[in-house]
Amino acid sequence: MEPVIVYLLVNVSVGVLACFFGRRLFYLALGALVFLGVLNVSATATDGSAASFAIAVALGVVAALLSKFAYRAGVFLVGFLTGAALGFLVTMLLPQEASDFLGVIMVVSGLLLGLAAARWSDLAVRLGTAWSGASFIVPNVLAALLAPAALGAAVVPGDMAASFDALSAYVGGEFAAAYGTPVLVGTIALAVIGSVVQARQKG
């Protein structure tokens, strides 16, 4: 169960950071969100090798540096990630045939929210980081509460990278499809709370 605990701690910790402190820690949150986003997406398309993790880390660092020197580009990226996450969740609620267009839906919704975010940057950073953080917290917490046995079964003994790969694929795939409505409702509720908390912070 150790890989499950580590996986959940990483995802939930970064999610909390982004959801409740995203505006204050924008650049750090952006790098962390991109890192996790790339890691979770690449996990389903690769064998979870060390090279995949190295690429994810490198892309996260590059994105964080870009956001520091190109604020609007960073805001667009947060909006894009938020839109892609929203597109993923909405697709889980649509008929099975819609899953064939998952990539297109995620890209289109990501672009739309990314462009809107660049125009209304401060509000977008608040809402975007709150939503992105919530989208990491809610599915993983619900999976830990509702499907602990399935999480344990996804672990590959003696291989942390492969375990992360399998856990990410399960939470983002089979679990999200089975519990699409509670995941979406929970994510929206937590994102609203996170956005309000950020709005009340100074600085």
TrEMBL record:
Keywords: Membrane, Transmembrane, Transmembrane helix. The chain crosses the membrane at residues 6-21, 26-43, 49-66, 73-95, 101-118, 130-156, 176-197. This is TMEM198/TM7SF3 family protein. It comes from Candidatus Olsenella pullistercoris. The lineage of its organism: Bacteria, Bacillati, Actinomycetota, Coriobacteriia, Coriobacteriales.
